[in-house]
Amino acid sequence: MKLNIKPDCGNSPKKALVKNLTILFSSYDIEKAMDFLDDNVKWTLVGDESIIGKKQFRTALEEMSQNKALELTIHSIITHGKEAAVNGEMVMEDGNIFAFSDFYEFSSAKGDSVKSIVSYVIQKNKKPVVDTT
């Protein structure tokens, strides 16, 4: 996967963690990603149902992994206390491009275990409709 990440997106330990989590999630490196999640993690995909717990989180990532990201761009990462936010774009195998913003809450200010994630994902392009008539 091609990575486009600004150098300042890793200039603090928490920013580096959020950058690495974003890479793990977008590359579907599920085993490594699970190490950073609280057992009762809550993932809210805005406009969809929430995913609660590591088991459901793993299942959701496995289902999403059918369409791999070819390119990940991280525009910015902001951190403060127990919270962090990242925004960027992903170019997928099927040609779709998604813009995203993820808002993290960690179990503590130390930031070693993700308590919750709220994700906003918008498809920037649409696959062309093929007229078969």
Provide structural commentary.
With 133 residues, the protein is of the alpha/beta class. The protein has a single domain (2-123), classed as Roll (Nuclear Transport Factor 2, Chain: A). Helix content is 23%, strand content 44%. The chain has a 7-stranded mixed sheet with strand order 1-4-5-6-7-2-3. It starts with a strand and ends in a 10-residue tail after the last strand.
CATH architecture term:
Roll
Overall form: globular
How large is the radius of gyration? Answer: 15 Å
Sheet-strand content, in percent, reads 35-45%
Question: Total domains, how many?
Answer: 1
Give the terminus-to-terminus CA distance: 37 Å
Series of H and E elements: EHHEEHEEEE
As laid out across the biggest beta sheet, the strand order is 1-4-5-6-7-2-3
Q: Estimate percent helicity.
A: 10-25%
Poorly predicted parts: none
Could you outline the blueprint of secondary structure elements for this entry?
Layout: E1 2-5, H1 13-26, H2 30-34, E2 37-45, E3 50-52, H3 54-64, E4 69-80, E5 83-92, E6 97-106, E7 114-123
Parallel strand pairs: 1-4, 2-7
Antiparallel strand pairs: 2-3, 4-5, 5-6, 6-7
Question: Key terms for this structure?
Answer:
7-stranded mixed beta sheet; 3 helices; 7 strands; globular
Brief characterization of the structure:
The chain has 133 residues and is α/β, with parallel strands linked by helices. Helices cover 23% and strands 44% of the residues.
